[in-house]
């Protein structure tokens, strides 16, 4: 939207004012996240920039909060837990979700609307209600305060994302490809792995990433269902914030921001690849 | 195993014997002990857990800081028939509820706890009124008022609970806990009710109205806190000029962290805190051995060298010495020290068990207005 | 939708054609096609079945079970079967007669004989204390001494605790002596039963939940509005920029979206607290005095700022995807026909963005109405929402029936909203990348 040379003064003012407003909003979106990164290298236990930091003197900066983080048994255990629970929940959610998405996108699927509603309900129902329900249920079947309990709960929360992303990929899926494979004598399994899977793979992977980040970031269910041995990173952060905020939390936050940048990049690349592949296929 | 435990209890306080028994026990045991976290759990680790694990290498202790929601956890575990907690640190009012529900074990104190070194049985050695049907007290703690001296001129420093309610002479924001307990008692105390009559007054609708009317006078100056650590944090950050809080947390912030604040002992609200044993826990025998050790006279006195809470046994009082790291005399920081115990309000748990539901609703409504 | 598609699909598939060839063995073509159709349906269903079964077990069933707790009322029935029998026909006015107290005594005695974990008197006291203060104390004290009671029992009970002489307690026992109750919902609506069993409003100083629902709604509307005001300009800007720049800006929207919720909440604590970045900056710039630092956190302001930041991407993404599809030529056409830029925007452009606004607004609103973590961490008292109250009853006051009633009301509200959302834009439009 360039400014045409014949624009009036009013239009000029509006044009620049509008851009100014937009930039301010983007600042609001990004600044809080980015500001934690330099603060996490603060040598002092404060949440403000010290004079040394502002004048860029090396003694104003230190890695002490990162050392604190990596030297703490409970933080390290929480990292391990987050990855174990996240990975297991992702595998389960991706498998179940992809199968379901394949079924759902078949034209013959009965009760499609109702089933779709049930499958995506975990992201509609407020987390506190899911957590309350699971707290009672898992307690009654001996799964409260176990890894399996937390993994199953996180699988349920991650499934809708896999169903949605894979279904979206399958919308552009050309059925004639599988028919061609079948007519050339491939078994359904072979057809799936050789034809269907490569085409829907970007959707599956981005669904899996969504499922992973959902588990990785989840706290309400963990608060209610997990015991002390299953504490994840967000659960440790919750304790840290409620007890006493030290800059160690900023070090953790910085690492998590870098992780989310990596994940975001992966998803973005996948999306482009998916569009490219689909662009090649007819229809 | 059980027999051995009983025999040892008969032997009475012989730690070395217990250690011997541990040497014979083959199976490694892992005990999950639920407590309040922070400096308080640290004091238990150093005074009880570490010495016990040293004597009993086969025992590992896992610390869970779930005490704030302990009753919910106990109830859920009991309903599931899957009790994973071995020992829980909780308040006597919650312990009484859990005891009524049958989800924690009744305790025969004289049979399972160590006698005092001079042979006084536990029921006489523990401070009067502290034992519960299912409850083994560990400490006396109190909720106190603390303030920042730098927020007021030198010739006009707050000294009493009445000053908490005096925003004219002592301006600034105050931090109070977000529940009715302690706050209502103090409102009446500041309004001139004698500490001994507070619960009689509070049992009447007029008394409740009177307490809320007093709280209304400072309503616009209150910041509410939820977790024990927040109160000293709010003071240290300068968010408030006065804060109510647990005396141990305040001690820790002032003496260990160097926060500039003073404690007002006037009207301190005194309460017990202690252990309960979940019914059908996974390692009852191992827990009872641990408890015998961890609640004896010396151990309770030891805990006081890590945090400023008073031991619940009379016989421990004379053993209280210096802070383990700071070397300061802990006696003067105990809520029960004579110079601090001049106007205490003893929290009435029966009252709060009976009227708590109703008063919590009214307090929540009051906070929302 | 399913039926419409199913009608055409079989003809275009591979298998039926093969069976068309073998109709010679007696199978009419129509039946063969129907059977193939059924098989396909089954195959499709079997693919969905594992996930469906999984979710029904670990998600739908637990929520149903939780909702059941809001009406489940076993305590009085379990503890006082004889008393309830004796109370039948009591008019609810005068204090019950001796036979009722004799039955009460028998119930207490029977309970003492049960194994400890099956005793029903303890839970009874806790249950009745929700309805009348001091009931728990009266019952546990009575339970301790009841073995020494002697007839006439009425006097014995009245001597033990004054509450046994209160007809109100007996009305409550009679009313709650049924396996199902409405009283948690009555309480959740700030109401109670009066002496004649009518539902009336509670004393003003004990009303909480209706206010809190109101505040939750108001906060959610406010946050949705803020998200719209902030999201609309940047979505518009991105939609008119060349793709390359738009993608770059899109990353700026997605980065917060992908960043951990707790990290974002922490960020706002760091920024907004009294010794935080913003206050310190303002003091250093001399805009505010050191002793007048602003209270921007642990109150409603904190909740609004942090939640707006967290939910803004949910508004921008659907808005942007709708705006991208609006051809710029429409605006140019409107202007060339003499409309002022504002009129062209209002009459031509804005109406076309309505589906995006609707989708974004409902999404933000649904999420914020059930929000728990951020209000709990930065909301203080004035920023609390209904979820925080549900969590409190779950974990601290342990009134699980009331928590379930509040939760059920919240859930029904959200489901109605979601249904509206579905009608408006269709669930399929829920996309995340």
Describe the structure.
- The complex is a heterotrimer of chains A (283), B (369) and C (433).
- Chain A is mostly helical.
- Chain A has helices at residues 9-39, 51-54, 64-70, 73-104, 112-124, 127-140, 147-171, 175-183, 188-217, 220-225, 233-243, 248-280.
- Chain B has 17 helices and ten strands.
- In chain B, strands 1, 2, 3, 4, 5, 6, 7, 8, 9 and 10 form a ten-stranded mixed β-sheet that branches.
- In chain B, strand 1 (29-34), helix 3 and strand 2 (59-64) form a beta-alpha-beta unit.
- The radius of gyration of chain B is 21 Å and the shape is globular.
- With 433 residues, chain C is mainly α.
- Chain C contains 21 helices and two strands.
- Chain C has helices at 2-8, 15-21, 29-69, 74-79, 81-87, 98-113, 121-131, 135-145, 153-160, 167-176, 183-188, 209-240, 243-258, 261-272, 277-284, 300-324, 329-336, 341-369, 373-378, 386-395, 400-425; strands spanning 191-193, 199-201.
- Chain C has a two-stranded antiparallel ribbon.
- In chain C, strand 1 and strand 2 form a beta hairpin.
- In chain C, 43% of the residues are buried.
- Chains in contact: A-B, A-C, B-C.
- At the A-C interface, helix 1, helix 4, helix 5, helix 6 and helix 7 of A face helix 1, helix 3, helix 12, helix 13 and helix 14 of C.
CATH topology assignment of the largest domain in chain B = D-Maltodextrin-Binding Protein, domain 2
Helical content of chain A stands at: over 70%
For the biggest sheet of chain B, the summary is: 10 strands, mixed
Radius of gyration of chain A: 24 Å
Measured by residues with Cβ under 8 Å of the partner chain's Cβ, the largest interface is: A-C, 100 and 97 residues
Using only C-alpha atoms, the radius of gyration of chain B works out to 21 Å
Estimate nothing, just give the exact number of structural domains of chain A.
Answer: 2
CATH class of the largest domain in chain B: Alpha Beta
Oligomeric form: heterotrimer
């Amino acid at each position: 939207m360039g400014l045409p040379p014949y624009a009036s003064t009013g239009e000029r003012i509006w044009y620049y004012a509008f851009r100014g407003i937009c930039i301010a909003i983007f600042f609001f979106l990004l600044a809080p996240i980015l500001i934690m990164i330099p603060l996490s290298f603060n040598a002092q236990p404060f949440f403000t920039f010290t004079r040394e930091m502002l004048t860029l003197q090396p003694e104003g900066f230190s890695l002490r909060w990162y050392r604190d983080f990596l030297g703490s048994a409970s933080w390290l255990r929480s990292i391990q837990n987050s990855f174990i629970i996240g990975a297991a929940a992702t595998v389960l959610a991706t498998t179940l979700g992809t199968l379901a998405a394949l079924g759902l996108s078949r034209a013959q699927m009965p009760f499609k609307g109702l089933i779709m509603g049930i499958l995506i309900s975990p992201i509609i129902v407020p987390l506190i209600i899911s957590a309350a329900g699971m707290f009672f249920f898992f307690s009654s079947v001996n799964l409260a305060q176990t890894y399996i309990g937390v993994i199953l709960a996180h699988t349920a929360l991650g499934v809708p994302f896999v169903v949605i992303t894979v279904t979206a990929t399958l919308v552009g899926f050309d059925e004639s490809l599988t028919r061609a494979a079948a007519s050339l004598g491939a078994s359904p399994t072979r057809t799936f792995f050789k034809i269907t899977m490569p085409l829907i793979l970007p959707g599956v992977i981005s669904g899996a990433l969504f499922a992973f980040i959902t588990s990785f970031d989840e706290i309400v269910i963990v608060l209610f269902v997990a015991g002390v041995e299953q504490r994840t990173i967000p659960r440790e952060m919750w304790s840290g914030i409620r007890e006493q905020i030290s800059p160690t939390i900023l070090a953790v936050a910085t690492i998590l921001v870098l992780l989310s940048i990596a994940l975001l990049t992966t998803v973005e690349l996948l999306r482009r690849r998916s569009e490219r592949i689909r662009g090649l296929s007819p229809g | 195993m059980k027999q051995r435990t009983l025999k040892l209890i008969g032997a009475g306080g012989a730690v070395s014997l217990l250690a011997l028994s541990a040497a014979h026990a083959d199976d490694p045991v892992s005990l999950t002990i639920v407590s309040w976290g922070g400096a308080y759990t640290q004091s238990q680790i150093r005074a009880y857990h570490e010495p016990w694990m040293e004597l009993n290498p086969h025992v590992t202790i896992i610390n869970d800081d779930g005490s704030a929601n302990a009753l919910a956890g106990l109830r859920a575990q009991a309903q599931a028939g899957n009790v994973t907690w071995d020992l829980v640190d909780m308040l006597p009012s919650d312990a009484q509820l859990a005891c009524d529900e049958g989800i924690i074990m009744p305790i025969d104190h004289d049979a399972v706890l160590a006698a005092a070194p001079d042979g006084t049985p536990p029921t006489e050695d523990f401070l009067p009124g502290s034992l519960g049907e299912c409850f083994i007290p560990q400490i006396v703690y109190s909720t106190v008022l603390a303030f920042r001296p730098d927020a007021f001129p030198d010739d006009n420093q707050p000294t009493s609970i009445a000053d908490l309610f005096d925003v004219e002479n002592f301006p600034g924001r105050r931090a109070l806990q977000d529940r009715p307990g302690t706050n209502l008692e103090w409102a009446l105390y500041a309004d001139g009710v004698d500490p001994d009559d507070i619960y009689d007054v509070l049992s009447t609708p007029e008394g409740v109205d009177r307490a809320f009317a007093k709280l209304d006078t400072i309503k616009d100056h209150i910041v509410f806190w939820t977790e024990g650590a927040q109160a000293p944090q709010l003071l240290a950050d300068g968010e408030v000029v006065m804060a109510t809080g647990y005396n141990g947390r305040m001690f820790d912030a002032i003496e260990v962290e160097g926060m500039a604040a003073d404690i007002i002992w006037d009207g301190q609200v005194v309460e017990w805190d202690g252990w309960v044993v979940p019914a059908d826990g996974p390692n009852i025998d191992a827990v009872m051995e641990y408890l015998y050790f961890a609640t004896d006279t010396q151990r309770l006195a030891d805990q006081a060298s890590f945090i400023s809470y008073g031991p619940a046994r009379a016989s421990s009082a004379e053993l209280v010495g210096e802070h383990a790291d700071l070397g300061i005399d802990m006696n003067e920081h105990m809520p029960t020290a004579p110079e601090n115990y001049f106007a205490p309000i003893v929290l009435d748990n029966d009252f709060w068990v009976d009227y708590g539901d109703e008063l919590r609703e009214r307090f929540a409504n009051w906070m929302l207005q | 939708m399913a039926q419409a598609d199913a009608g055409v699909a079989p003809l275009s598939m591979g298998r039926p054609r093969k069976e068309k060839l073998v109709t010679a063995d007696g199978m009419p073509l129509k039946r063969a096609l129907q059977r193939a159709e059924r098989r396909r349906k089954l195959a499709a269903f079997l693919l969905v079945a594992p996930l469906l079964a999984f979710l029904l077990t670990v998600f739908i069933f637990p929520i149903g079970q939780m909702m059941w707790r809001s009406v489940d009322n076993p305590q009085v029935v379990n503890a006082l079967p004889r008393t309830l029998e004796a109370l039948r026909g009591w008019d609810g006015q005068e204090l019950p007669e001796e036979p009722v107290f004799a039955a009460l005594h028998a119930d207490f005695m029977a309970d003492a004989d049960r194994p400890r974990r099956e005793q029903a008197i303890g839970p009874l006291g806790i249950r009745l204390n929700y309805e009348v203060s001091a009931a728990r104390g009266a019952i546990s004290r009575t339970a301790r001494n009841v073995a020494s009671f002697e007839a006439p029992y009425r006097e014995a009970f009245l001597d033990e605790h004054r509450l046994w002489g209160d007809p109100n307690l007996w009305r409550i026992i009679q009313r709650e002596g049924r396996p199902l109750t409405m009283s948690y919902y009555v309480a959740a609506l700030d109401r109670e039963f009066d002496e004649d069993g009518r539902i009336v409003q509670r004393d003003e100083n004990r009303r909480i939940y209706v206010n809190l629902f109101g505040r939750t709604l108001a906060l959610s509307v406010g946050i949705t509005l803020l998200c719209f005001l902030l999201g609309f300009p940047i979505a518009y800007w991105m939609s008119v920029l060349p793709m390359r720049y738009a993608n770059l800006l899109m990353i700026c929207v997605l980065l917060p979206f992908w960043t951990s919720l707790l990290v974002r909440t922490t960020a706002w604590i760091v920024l907004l607290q009294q010794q935080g970045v913003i206050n310190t900056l303002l003091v250093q710039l001399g805009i505010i005095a050191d002793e007048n630092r602003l209270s921007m956190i642990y109150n409603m302001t904190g909740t609004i700022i942090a939640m707006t930041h967290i939910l803004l991407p949910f508004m921008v993404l659907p808005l942007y995807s709708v705006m991208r599809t609006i051809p710029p030529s429409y605006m140019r056409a409107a202007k060339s026909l003499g409309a002022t830029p504002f009129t062209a925007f209002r009459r031509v452009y804005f109406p076309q963005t309505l589906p995006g606004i609707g989708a974004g607004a409902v999404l933000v609103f649904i999420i914020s109405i059930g929000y728990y973590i951020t209000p709990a961490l930065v909301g203080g008292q004035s920023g609390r929402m209904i979820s925080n109250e549900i969590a409190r009853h779950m974990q601290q006051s342990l009134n699980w029936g009331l928590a379930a009633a509040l939760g059920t009301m919240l859930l029904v509200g959200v489901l109605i909203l979601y249904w509206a959302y579905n009608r408006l834009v269709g669930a399929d439009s829920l996309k995340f990348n």
